Each structure stands twice: as C-alpha cells, then as structure tokens.
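Supplementary Data S3. Sequence and structure tokens for construct A.
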Amino acid sequence: MLARQALLSQALLAPADTLQLDGKAWDLLVRQGRRANLLAELGWRLSDAGCIERVPPAPRMHLMSAMRIVAQQDVAMRFEVSRVVSALEETGVRPVFLKGAGYLV
C-alpha cells in the first residue's frame, strides 16, 4: 500500500500500485499531482503501464483532462516557436528558447 506522505512520488515510480487506492487516497493523489504540476505525468505513466482504464472514473477524468491540457499547450507552444523562427528567418538570427519552449524544441 502506498504511504500517504509520499503518495505522489510512489505513484510516479510504481503507477500500477495506485490501483489499490481507495477514494480518499485517490482524492489526495489528484490534489498532490495537481499542486506539483505532475498530474498529466501520472496519467501518462498509468497509460504506459496499461492500467489507466482501471483507474476509477472520477480520478481518471482528472488525469485525462490534465493530459489533454498539456497536449494542447504543447501544440500552442510549437506554433509559437514556429512563428518566432519564421519571423527571424530573414534576419539570420537563430533564436534560443528557454524553459518550457527550450525543452520542447
């Protein structure tokens, strides 16, 4: 069973173990994941482990929603990066992207 104090870190390391959680523990895990901005990551790890469909419906909706938001942000960021690159193309300036955009490109 996952310890409540380290619930998020344990869930990220062993996502299949979350299938044992009760409603209160899932509530805590979703809140921890959201606060740490890791809810989508948890969703992807559960998906990669082949068990996201076995997550109870309410927390699964939160996970899926977080994953969709991050995917949409990825699309928006890629668009913005392409616009910056395109705008600077004629100048010969090669932009350097930092933080989120830097990781993305």
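Construct B, processed identically:
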Amino acid sequence: MNALINSLTNNARVIIAVAFFILSSIPIMAGCSWDSAALVAMHECMAAICVYGIFSSLKRPYSLFKVLNLFYLFFFCIAPMMQYHQGVCMLGTHFTYENYLLTSAVSFAVIVLTHAVYFLAERYFDKKHSENTHSNEHKCEVCLTTRKEVILILLSAAACFYAIYINHFDVMSLFIRDGETNNRIELPTSVFLVGSYFVRPLSLMALLAAVILGVKHRGVKALLFLMLLIAIPPTGVARFLVAAMYLPVLMCFVSRLRRGLSFVLVICLGVMIVFPLLNYFRFYGQRTFEISSIYSQFVDINFDAYSMMMRVIKDDIVTNGMQLAGALLFWMPRSIWAAKPISSGYYVAHTGLSWDDLSMPFWGEGYINFGYFGVIIFTVAFALLLAKLDSKYWCITVKRPKDLNAISYYILLGLLMFILRGSMMSALAYTVAIMTAFYCVKKIVTR
C-alpha cells in the first residue's frame, strides 16, 4: 500500500514538474528567433536544471537548495530572456547579443557546478550527520517558565516601542514603508541598522521560541504575534525582511507548508503576487497596483541581478578581493578604515550609472573580486555551505520537535533570495544582525 502511495506521489510530482517547466519556458521562448536560438536553448537548459532541483526530493519538501533553484529560475532564466526579447536597456545600457551569450554561458556553468557540488556534498554530510546524531542530542528538554515568558514579552515590547518611536508614534508611517506618509526619525546609519535588524527581529524570535517550546499561559502566543505585527509590519518594511520574518512564522504555524509541494508554491506565490503587491505600499500615494505588474516586474530594476553580473563581465570590473574584504569587515566604521569599500552595487553604479541602489548577485560578487576564478570559488563554497546546512537540518534538527535551531534555518530560507540577489556587504551585515538576535533569545530561554 505504501509503495502504491509513493508511486502515485512520484507520478504527481513529475507531472507538476513538467507543467512547471512548460510554464517557465513560455516567457523564455516568447519572441524567439533563429538569431537568438543558442541563447534561448541555454536558458531552457538552465530552467530544466532548476526545475529538477526544485522537485528533486520528496523527503525534503523544503530546503535552501530549492530556494536557490527558485531564485535562479526567476532571476537568471526567465527575467533575462524577457529583458532581452523586449529590448530593455537597463539603466540606459544596451547589452549586445554577445554580452548575453557570454553571461548566460557563465550562468549555465554556475548552475551545473552548483548541482554537482551540492549533491556530492549532501551525501557526505548526510552520512556524517547520521553517524553523529546520538552524540549531538540534547541532554535535557528545554521548557518555558513563567519568568522566561515574561522576558520574551518584554523583549517583544521593546521591539514594538522602538518601531513606534522611530515613526514618531505615527500609525500610517509605521505601516506604510515610503511615500507621502513617511514620518520616520533620521538616525545614524549604524543605529538604524542595529535597530532595524537586531532590535525589531527580537519580536520574531520571542514568538517562535514560544511556539516551539510551548507556553504555560494561554494568550501569550497571541500577544507575541500581535507585537510582531507592530514591530515588523509586513507593509512597512523592506520586502526581503518580510520574507525573512514571516516565512518562519508560516513554517511554524502551518504544518501543511512543511509537506509536499506547498513550500515551493508559496515561494512562487510570493515572487509573483506578494512582492509586487508590497511594492504598492512602498510607493503609497504615488502608484496603483495593477495585475500587469506581476509580469512587468521581470523587466524592471528589481530583477537587475543578471544584468549586473553581465555588466561586471562586460566591463571586466575586478577589485582583487577588496569587495570581499569590505563585506567581511562590514562592522568596521569608516572613521577607522577610511578606504573601506562600498557595496558592490554602489561601486558599479559609481562607474557612471544614473541610479545607485543596485544589487549584485552572489556570483557577480565572485567575479568582481577575483574574475572567473572568483565565480568558481564562490560557487563551490556556497554549494558546500548549503549542503551542510540542509543536511544538518534534515538529519538532526527536524527530528527534535523542540530544537530552536529550526528558527535559524527558517530565517535563512526567507533570507536566501536577498542574499543571492545581493549586494554581499548588505546581505552579510543584515544576516549577522538578525542571527545575533536569534542567538540572544536562544541563550535566554535555554540557560
């Protein structure tokens, strides 16, 4: 009976994967001509590899690897071809067919190498973690006392107060990210970053710790959830922060999301529907939301990852590791390091572009640091890291119902698209701040 169910499940997965690939192929092939056949064929192959990665494992219905493949499908397979077919000149720059062909060849090599390294490393880490499962088990089960519940509520309340304070106690300013209602206090950059990516996420960590460990008093989880909505309102913060904060909430509260294809469908829904909708609140009073924005978003500046990588390859922009040094030492103030590099997106923008709030995809960071050798090193290192994190979660963490490390994994699931889109300096700084908030709360509730 189980074999029959598994067979039916596998068949359904294959059918959905094929349908997913066909839908992905439509924008890639739209407007195709014989002159661009090689480019289209390359993107079709990349899309097939990504779809395989997305639907590769029923036993692991969600993983960082699946998110990477979803990102690659949208940002490196579909968006570039829509931009090419429509003749989009990103920031006024016309890229030739040869520019696209070279960048796509590099992108194709990246996704093939990522899959090869990941699957080999996954087997190694799975075996290693399976052997060490018993030795890594907790000696005692953590539970929340009344005192710890009060501490979690106070931490979340502090995050709420900070969010309300920096918006001058203005409700509209709190819940609308930008536009006519913006009434935020101007703070030094370092203070703003600590407040936004350490203090405010404390409300999320408090809620998820209460959900995973269980509470002694009714109403605590509801109160913590309400304070999360105030501290980090989905319509009032950057979209990557919405994904990082609320995907973990969904993962904890909606068990169905952790089974089958639900996770993949939710991520697709987020990219196609939720993100364009949230952009409306960013420009509240300046534009209206239209269904067409679901498709037009692929040719606007939000999907500039491929074009930014193409730009650094085309202009052969290489800093010999300076951008990597700046990212690793993001915490060092410029008053001490006057020549500290700016983020890679800004760096490229300052070569003569009209807009400077630009991304730099992770693999583009590899090129801007060490050229093609950097692309290889960054690809291999990142594939190894994802394999290790996925293996540790599925071999160890998921088997422990009250393991708080699940929180950090869920956060990374939500953050990964932002990390991959870049720039690396911002992504690393924000990720470290958010993870520090997690470890602080974890330390409080487990001591």
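The mean pLDDT is 85. The two ends are 46 Å apart (CA to CA).
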